[in-house]
Every structure is written in structure tokens, then in C-alpha cells.
Write the C-alpha cells for this entry.
Amino acid sequence: MGTVNQQILSSICVTGIVSALIVQSASAEVVQPQSSVSQNITRRELRKGTVNQAQLLSQVPNSPTLVQVTGVEATPTEQGVEVILQTTQGQQLQITNRSADNNFIADIPNAQLRLPSSDGFIFRSEKPIEGITEITVTNLDANTIRVIVIGEAGLPTAELFDSDEGLIFGFTPVVSSAQTPQLPAEPETETQTEQSSTPDQPIELVVTGQQDGYSVPNATTATRTDTPLRDIPQSIQVVPRQVLEDRQVIRASDALRNVSGVQRGNTVGGISEVFNIRGFQQFGGNLRDGFRENFSLVETANLERIEVLKGPASLLYGNLDPGGIINYVTKQPLSEPFYAVGLQAGSFGLVRPTLDLSGPLNPERTLLYRLNVAYERGGNFRNFDTEVERFSISPVVSWKISDRTDVTFEFEYLNDQRPFDRGLVAIGTGVANIPFDRALGELDDSSERTNLFAGYRLEHRFNDNWKLRNRFRFSYEDFTLANADPSRLNEETGELSRDFIISDSEARTFALQTDLIGKFVTGSVEHTLLFGVDLSWDTREGAVLFAEAPSINIFNPVYGIAPLPPRDQFPFNFPNRTETNSFGIFLQDQITLAENLKLLVGGRFDNINQTTLTSEQESQAFSPRAGIVYQPIEPISLYASFSRSFQPNTRTRVDGSLLEPVRGTQYEVGVRGEFLNGRLITNLAAYEITRSNLAITDPDNPRFAIPSGEQRSRGIELDVTGQILPGWNIIASYAYTDARVTRDNNLQPGNLLEGVPFNSASLWSTYEIQTGDLQGLGFGLGLFYVGERQGDLNNSFQVPSYVRTDASVFYRRNNWRVGINVNNLFNVDYIEATQRRDRIDPGAPFTVRGTLSVEF
């Protein structure tokens, strides 16, 4: 096994070195950009054309909020051509010059192109005038617009104008002796004349735009490239930062209530966030910025948004569950100074201050940073003596090495201490009728988890069409717990037997991802090609100690009868160690056959080697994916897709051979709509997922297994997100999920999967007054419905349905915000999650949380 580890580590080192050498070689051929220096440019200078290109494209203050450009026009003028980027509300923009050769190139960060056309993410005008070959305006990534103007005989001269319409570029081509530009005789408008006579004064380039709010047009999780949601042939939902702020979310599980088909899964004693997605519980982990991580309680203070990809995602991320994957996207550095402090305080002694700082570290703005800090204490409604206490700090530094090469360094430290809480128990066919805050362990049951993340993200752009990404992350986790764990319940007397448990574990993960992304054309067909290699080395080791604990009566509990024994007095000690080495290689092609017809095809090969203290196994799998998107009219996308997933199987046959990997297969069809100029996004999907090769007991040899178990999930999902009217935002969902056992010799075929309701729905909506004396005052209302669920795979008990009501009132003025959020307004008793008869997690009662935040 040591040889395998050395091979993996050698591969990681070689891949990183080769990537760095490629980037260094390519960067040596790139002309370094001129440093950008802020200038005061007057309107008179702009109109007289006396400002050179470096001045015109100097950096000016920008806002960290996203601006939507909803229209682009290219209009010939006497001097050449004007390109107008049309918007609707005031917002500052930064413009960065990346021109080279005959190509005028300007990048506009914190902006997104959203055009009301069949392809709302690109504007192209060929030969608008003599001397200009082509004008292109497109989304460079999720947060940047790129303007490219190609001159025939040389680099066009550029002027920049402010306007009520938006941002105006004026281009004058370099004309050779054989060329004469077409000059339509158009008189200057009254506005232009007025600008010409304006006295010299600094000009602030204010471009009107629309804050992104609840609707997010692009996502990276579904394709590992920045792709408009309307072009993705698979259901993907995004919970943006604005929703997290409006709901004052502390745990990610609260935010994910707003996503169809997502239910809380095994909480592992209240210390983890595991979810059921489309009926199947996750076992392969979540993603954090595209890297696999464990199920620890994610720190939301550092989140920019949450992306949920429904269905198999093994093509891009390897061994995963077939229901879907959750990707937590973190905040990144901003180019302008940004400082925010916040304080949350509320029920059950909750206190949670936060700090968010960002900005440049040098005058050239090539070094940027972001720092998020959060501390949390209290907030747990269960009657343990152990308090919740939590601290996290996450610095990020990005370095623009050149105009084509960027690198970002990331680090996070998180320490979380809280009770280890197995929750309630079942009696008969329902949940025991005891107070929801009653602990059934000992009052001093506790857990502590420490997480460290460190890594880098390197990107080099060879040109506008090809780029290389190399990313590395090291993860470390140290976890301990000590508790009295429930075991067997005498349902007649209420006496619950228990075991004392001490568990210690450490985990270390090294992960490396290398992607090559290229855009090219074959005839009239456009391609976005993604080739990737993933490597990871994961080691987990620890021990679990058991000892008999005093029983407790669930109706009349008495705590502290016997203390937790010293470690050396535990009679049972079970050490464990697992090493998992993974290698994956994949290819994906996003093909544009026509403006309204797109294909996605790809495949991945994975090899996974797992070693424990007693066994070793190796698994291989090929995971394909294919989909098609047809857009019959501008706002509508019809799609269909097929995808597969895999997970290694840990059981063996009677002959000692390993079972084949568990496979997931999904068929999905759907329709996605973007209405109200892209402000309102809807997605309706129907799917069927089959999970096969599940290990079940060999009827002839009960100590061994055969791969013939099968489970199936079918459903329909609807998600609606966006802005209905100015100030009125909504995020809503509905899911019908039929998830059941279809083949198993231990369970009754037809049994429903645990914790999965047939019907669930959610609604969260806010309205903020836009004008008048009450401007900035807002209200929010949330309704969350979960239908009846089976409590375990045997379907021996049921968890009743519930409707939870949340509400908020807030006031926002200038740079500060104050608000009150109420969760479970009517104090209903409900079950958050269920796994088996002695692991049932109750939901929190009526809870109030006040917030105050200030930005500088």
C-alpha cells in the first residue's frame, strides 16, 4: 500500500510541476499590461477626444453587487461606431484594459449580460463599419462582461461616455489609404452638446444596473465551466447570498429548505448536515468550491451562494450518490475596499458576531484579499448542559500575476463544540410523546470538531479561447465525542438502555484538480471542451470505545447515575483506519449546433483503491452523461438528459471477490423559463433514478453478500426564483417524490425510503418599500410544508406532516440594516430528520433572532 501512496503523491507533485511550467512558459510570451492608475477625466476631455486609451480605461470605483446589462446597441456615427451597454438603475462599474494588437478588449467586472434574445448572453455585430471587423459583447464569466472590438488596420481609438442609458463606448477605426469609413450625417443630441459645454470636473462613471437579488443566471457546479442555467440539460438550483441574508441563515440546512427535493438526512447526533436529494441520502460528501468535503456544519458567514445539482454528478466529481450534490461556493476578494460587521442575537442565548473585510493590498490592485470571521455561542433549544461554541476564520488572497495568469490562496480554520445529541425515540408506529427538548443521553454529552482547509487555485489564459486551471486543497479534521448512546427501548416501561461511547478520529485529504478548457469552432458548430484529471489521497484513522451505561426512563429521566468511565476502563476498543486513493480522468463537450440547440456529452473513468486494517479493494467505473437543450422561443429551454453515477461496494461474495460498484442511472426531462427580462427563473423537471448493485445478504451464505439490491426514485419538481416586481422577491418550490425499495431479500419490496415525503413545498418571499418616508422597510414570510415520512427502511413507524411558518421585518438605510426574524412562528412540533427508531431529530420551537449589520 505504501507503493500506491507514493505513486499518488508522485502524480500530484508531477501534475502540479508540469502545470506550473506550462503556465510559466506561456506567461513568458505575454506582454505585461500597463499598470492602471486612477485618473480624473472630465466630460470636456471625453467629448474633445483628448484622452488616450490608458486614461479612458483607468480603474474607477466599483460595487461588489452584480449589475445586469439588458441591452446592447452598435450605432454608426460620424467618427466611427458607438457601442451602448443599456441598464436601468445606478451602479458603479470598473473597466480594465486588456487590449492587444488590433483587438480592443475591455473587461467589466461585477456585471452580467442579460439580453432579451434567443441567446441572451452574447452580442455580435460583424463589419458594422469600414475599419471594424467585428464587435462582440459577451459574459467572460459569471461576474464579468468582456467587450471586444477588432480593427482591420490597427487598434481602434476608444472614448468613454456616461449616459442615462448606460455606458457608451465610442470607437474610431484606424483607416488605411484604401479605406474610407461610412459616415452617416447624424447631428449630436442635446445631451451630447450639453456635455460638451459642461465645465471641467471629475467624471464618475456610473452605469445603471440591477442588483442580482434572488435570480442567478449562471452556475459552475453542473458543467465545471461557467454556463448559463438555461443551457444546462439537468436541474440545478442556486440559493444566492441575498436569500441567506434575508432569512438570516446560520445553518445551511435552513437555506436548503427552499430547494425542491432536498430533505434533511442523518444528522449524526446533531453535528453534521447530511441531506436526502431526490429520495437518496448522501454518503459521498458535499462540495466546497468544487472539492469534496465531509458533512460538518458549514460556516455560512463565508458563503456567497449554494448550488444544488440534481441527479448523478460522477462525470465531474467521481464517486457520488445518484440523488445529487451540494456545492458551497465561498466569498472571494473584491477589488474595492469593503468592510462589514454584523451581530445576531436571539432565543436560547444565541450570540453571533461576524466580520467581513475585503479590498486591494497594493495600489495596482493586483493583490486582493478577503477575510471572514465568525463566532457563535448558544442557540440550542435542547436541555443539555453542554453549550454550543463555534469559531471560524477564513482569509483569501488573490494575486493577478499578469493579464493572463491569476492565483488565489485560501485558508480556513473552524472549531465547533456542541452536544452530541441522538434526539428522540419511537414507540409503536409513531414518535414517543415526550417533550421535544428532553435529552435522552447525559446532560454533559459533548463533541468537538476542528477543521483546517488550505489550498490554491491557479488559472492561466493562453488566449481568449483556451485556459488551464490547476487547483489544490489540503483538508484536515480532528473529531472527538463522548456520550451515552441510546440502544434498545422497552416500549411498555419506557426504559431505554444505553452505551457509553468515546470516539476519536483524524482525517487528512490531499486533492488536486487540473482542467483544460477550450472554445473552438468546427464549421458552424461551436464547442466548449473540458478535459480534466482529478487525484486525491485520503486517510482516516481513529478508535471507538464502548462500555455499558445506566439505562434511562424516557418519561421520567434521571441523569448522572454513573459518570463516563476513564478511557482505560472501557472494555471494548475498536480501532479503524481507511486509506482511499482516487484517480479520475474525464472529457466533456458543450456543443452549440445552433443558437437555440445545444448538446452536452461526456464521460469519465475512475479508479479507486481502498485499504482498511483488514482488507483492500480496487474499483473501476465509467460514468457517461449526455443531454440536449432546445430553446423554441427566447425565454424557454426544453431539455432531456441521461447520466450515471457510481460508488465503491465494500461487501464481498462467498468466493472473496468484491461486489461491483453501486450504480445510479437517471433519466430527466424538464423545461426552464426565464421571464420578466430574466428576473424570474422557473424550472420544472421530471425524473427517474435507479440505484442498483446494492449489497444484500446472500441467502445461501448469510455472512456474505450479492449485488442484487435495487432502489428507485421517481418524481416531479418545480422551482421558482427571482423578482416579481421591484422590491418583491420570491423563492418557492414543490416536489413529489416516490422513493422505494424495488428489490431486496431483507426488506419488503415496495417499502418507502426513510425520511422522504411524497409531497413537500416551500415559499419564502420578501417585499421592501422602494420610495417615500418608509423606503427601506421590508417584510418577509416563509411557509415550509413536509408530508408524512417513513421513519426507517422497515417502515415500522411514521413521522407526521407539518407546516412551519417563518416571518421577518427589517429596515435598510444607506449602509446599515436591522431586522428581526422569527422561525416557527406558531410553535408547531415537527420532526427535522429521522434515520431509525432511536435517532429522531426534533425541530426547534418558536425562535426569535435579531440582527444588526453595518457596511463601510
Remarks:
- Residues 1-64, 177-211 have pLDDT under 50 and may be disordered.
- Helices lie at 2-28, 43-48, 53-56, 190-196, 241-246, 252-255, 314-317.
